[in-house]
UniProtKB/TrEMBL annotation:
Site feature location: Raises pKa of active site His: 148
Pathway: Purine metabolism; IMP biosynthesis via de novo pathway; N(2)-formyl-N(1)-(5-phospho-D-ribosyl)glycinamide from N(1)-(5-phospho-D-ribosyl)glycinamide (10-formyl THF route): step 1/1
Source organism, top-level taxon: Bacteria
GO annotation terms (biological process): 'de novo' IMP biosynthetic process
UniProt-recorded name of the protein: Phosphoribosylglycinamide formyltransferase
GO MF terms held by the record: phosphoribosylglycinamide formyltransferase activity
NCBIfam families associated with the record: PurN
Family: Belongs to the GART family.
E.C. numbers: 2.1.2.2
Length: 204
């Protein structure tokens, strides 16, 4: 069984897409081992409890900069993949090296646009609207020691209309996130993803 840990900081709609993928059989031979959150009062916890998924809260106000070390203690030797699904705390240190190319993140833009420090949530879409871009989208990438800088696995583009608000653009992209994230997890679980010289190759 391919075991997944999900990290989430909010409502957990991306997390729900993984749950749905497992329960529908799309993510065959996959199992969500645990949900880890860095905030005690988020709806993602309710989603996990509803589906019988083990939860662990590592409150960022308590753990601060040591949160990555705590995650490593919990997960080392127990999971095959860590999925950041709306996770806001920065991962660093031994967690990154021990899980090299085994941590993925989904970001609501077409990296390298509108990413990096301070670019998360609605801020990403506000920046895209201000810039006047005609397309945006989402990116699933491996996590490295930088911010949104790891090898890109998959991207999906959506149109940006002149009359769009940031909220409308966010909803359009979120629909694609819910397709992209399970797709990438499935590819990884089937050993179809490899990193060569900093670039991702997907086997057909």
């Amino acid at each position: 069984m391919f075991k997944i840990a999900v990290l989430a900081s909010g409502g957990g709609t991306d997390f729900q897409s993984i749950i749905d993928g497992v329960e529908s059989g799309y993510l065959k031979n996959c199992e969500i081992e645990i949900l880890i959150t860095d905030c005690p009062d988020i709806y993602a916890l309710e989603r996990a409890e509803k589906h019988g998924i083990k939860c662990k809260v590592l409150d960022r106000k308590i753990y601060g900069g040591s949160i990555s070390d705590e995650i490593l203690k919990l997960l080392q030797g127990k999971v095959d993949l860590i999925v950041c699904a709306g996770w806001l705390s920065i991962l660093k240190g031994k967690l990154i090296s021990k899980f090299e190319n085994k941590i993925i993140n989904i970001h609501p833009s077409l990296i390298p646009s509108f990413c990096g420090d301070g670019m998360y949530g609605i801020k990403v879409h506000e920046a895209a609207i201000r810039k006047g871009v005609k397309i945006s989208g989402c990116t699933v990438h491996f996590v490295d020691t930088g911010t949104d800088s790891g090898p890109i696995i998959f991207q999906k583009a959506v149109p940006v209309y002149f009359e769009d608000t940031a909220g409308e653009l966010q909803k359009r992209i979120l629909k694609e996130e819910h397709i992209a994230l399970p797709k990438v997890i499935r590819l990884i679980s089937e050993n179809k993803v490899s990193v060569k010289q900093g670039r991702v190759e997907i086997c057909k």
